[in-house]
Every structure is written in C-alpha cells, then in structure tokens.
Write a structure and sequence with these properties.
Blueprint lengths: L1 E6 L2 E4 L4 E9 L7 E6 L6 E6 L5 E3 L7 E6 L4 E6 L8 E10 L2 E4 L3 E6 L1
Parallel strand pairs: 2-11
Antiparallel strand pairs: 1-3, 3-8, 4-5, 4-9, 5-6, 7-8, 9-10, 9-11
C-alpha cells in the first residue's frame, strides 16, 4: 500500500506562484512515473504534468512555459512549481504515482484557487 500526501495549495492572486509537493510513503518498491492532475468544478480530471523516474517530463499545453514538474527519487517526492497563475488554473490538484502499468495511487487532492 502506498500513501500520497499533497501540500502547498492555497489562494493566490492572478500572476502569482505556488509550489505543490507530494510525498509517497508506505511499501514502495519502485515508483515509475509521477504526475499532477487537476479537476475544476463541473469538469473532468485532466493531466497537468508528468515525470518519469528518468526525468522525462510531459505538460498539458495550457501550462507549458508556466509550470515546472520535478521529483526527488530518493524521497519519492514530486513537486509542481506553478508560475504566472491564471483564474482558469483554479482546481483541485491531485498527485498520482504509477507503480506498475496497471496499478496507480492517488493523493487526496489539494485546492488551488486563483483570484482575478
């Protein structure tokens, strides 16, 4: 069993920055890709950014150039640096850890609210 705990969400004005963290704990043998997803009210959950254990990153077009994903493999921790935030970035942000191609764990989510 793997637990993911997110932190760093909050309220920020448009143009501001936030840094999200997600730490994995429990019986961890190997975590492959880790990532961030978000879900706004009335919308489906969508991918924000992912990073493999080797450091390869992938971003949604809507956040390219503004968000940076990084991870510390030794600590099974992933970060999301969010800059130039916009009101449309408001959502609950979820951390995900892929253990195998068929097994993934999710965090409980952290609220990010960007005011205009």
């Amino acid at each position: 069993q793997v637990q993911l705990v997110e932190s760093g969400g909050g309220l920020v004005q448009a143009g501001g920055s936030l840094r999200l963290s997600c730490a994995a704990s429990g019986k961890i043998f190997r975590i492959n890709a880790m990532g961030w997803y978000r879900q706004a009210p009335g919308k489906q959950r969508e991918l924000v950014a992912t990073i493999t254990s080797g450091g390869t990153t992938n971003y949604a077009d809507s956040v390219k150039g503004r968000f940076i994903i990084s991870r510390e493999n030794a600590w099974n921790t992933v970060y999301l640096q969010m800059n130039s935030l916009k009101p449309e970035d408001t959502a609950v942000y979820y951390c995900k850890a892929d253990v195998t191609p068929r097994l993934a764990y999710w965090g409980q989510g952290t609220q990010v609210t960007v005011s205009s």
